[in-house]
Amino acid sequence: MANVLVFIDNPGASLKKSSLELLTLARSLGESTVALNGELSDSAAATFAEYGVAGILRPSAQDLDEFLVAPKAAFLAAAAENTGAGIVLLDNSPEGKEIAARLGVRLSAGVITDVVAVDPDGTAHKSVLAGSYTTACKATTAVSVLTLKANNVTPEPAPAATSPATSTVDVPAVAAAARITAREQKVASGRPDLTDARIVVAGGRGMDGDFGPVEELADALGAAVGASRAATDAGWISHDAQVGQTGKTVSPQLYISAGISGAIQQKAGMQTSKVIVAINKDAESPVFEIADFGIIGDVFDVLPQATAEIKKRKG
Ligand SMILES: Cc1cc2nc3c(=O)[nH]c(=O)nc-3n(C[C@H](O)[C@H](O)[C@H](O)COP(=O)(O)OP(=O)(O)OC[C@H]3O[C@@H](n4cnc5c(N)ncnc54)[C@H](O)[C@@H]3O)c2cc1C
């Protein structure tokens, strides 16, 4: 069994579902240690114990967030050497992938991104070509650095909780790291996080610039709002709402697709949703090939009616 290092970045008060997936996967591969950047809250510490983490390593320098990714990679390299890690797991976000690349250089380690599963022997499975194929690959180096796509592992606490010991590792100085000079708080929507949401209502080009009906249905259902790339590229909604091959991967219980044609790159991000409801005025639209329920109609007729009915039933 390998020593597995899991990078958790600024977990805040409670860990994200994608972090729980990393911890669950790590436990299936060997003894897991968390390399933690940021505060360790009581609830995060309790979750680490619940998920069977053997140890927590924190950077001796606490200013990693003053810079872009370089010092985080330096911290992880030091933590991997400290624990003799054979596998390092990170999330598959753009930042996670950039840290993984830098870490790979520092450790002369093979890096595999877009991972959806890992066998006990370290063989990683990747979903490629918009989810049409799954490939298996294994790093031939002493350490493998893997970034895990969200929503591919079911979070599961360990059969018995642990009492992880916390220690620090020195972060080597990083030359010429880009320093962050300003931050701006994103306005909170009050809606659930798109990748973790149980219900997603997504709109496409068929919304013709007006996401109001999508947002109203989402709020009636307590859902997150998603979008096709056509809608985000048009500037109708922010890019972080994009679902698909070059956007987010979601796997909710219910995905409502409104005015989206169902191109392969859109399907790649949502086809594992449990129930898919598609609303489209074109009966030949490819989205109906993967929909569990299809409504052939105009989104501006269907969405407000659905919202009104849901509100009525909820009282
Ligand atoms: C490398 C690459 C990566 C990509 N990554 C992504 C990605 O991550 N996510 C993504 O979504 N796309 C991605 N795309 C783009 C993708 O190929 C499609 O162009 C895009 O998904 C189309 O968006 P759409 O379905 O909203 O628009 P369209 O394909 O134009 O479809 C609009 C649909 O709305 C219907 N419609 C129109 N008006 C109404 C109405 N009033 N009521 C009901 N239905 C209506 C139409 O019948 C049509 O089916 C990528 C493309 C490439 C090449």
What does this protein look like?
There is one protein chain. The protein has 315 residues and is an alpha/beta fold. The protein folds into 2 domains: 2-169, Rossmann fold, CATH 3.40.50; 199-314, TPP-binding domain (Rossmann fold). Helices cover 28% and strands 25% of the residues. Strands 7-6-5-8-4-1-2-3-9 form a 9-stranded mixed β-sheet, sandwiched between helices. Bound molecules: flavin-adenine dinucleotide (FAD). Residues 204-206, 228-231, 242-247, 259-261, 263, 265-266, 269, 279-282, 285, 298-300 line the site of flavin-adenine dinucleotide. This is Electron transfer flavoprotein alpha subunit.
Give a brief outline of the structure:
It is built from nine helices and 14 strands. With 315 residues, it is α/β, with parallel strands linked by helices. Helix 2 links the parallel strand 2 and strand 3.
Bound molecules: flavin-adenine dinucleotide
Major sheet: order of its strands? Answer: 7-6-5-8-4-1-2-3-9
Provide the domain count: 2
Number of helices: 9
Percent of residues in beta strands: 25-35%
Low-pLDDT stretches are: none
Look at the structure and name the CATH superfamily of the largest domain.
HUPs
Order of helices and strands: EHEHEHEHEEEEEEHEHEHEHEH
Provide the CATH top-level class of the largest domain: Alpha Beta
Shape: elongated
Structural class: alpha/beta
CATH architectural category of the largest domain: 3-Layer(aba) Sandwich
Number of strands: 14
Please state the average pLDDT score.
94
What is the CATH third-level topology name of the largest domain? Rossmann fold
Helix content: 25-40%
Largest sheet: 9 strands, mixed
Gyration radius over CA: 21 Å
Measured between the Cα atoms of the first and last residue, the distance is: 54 Å
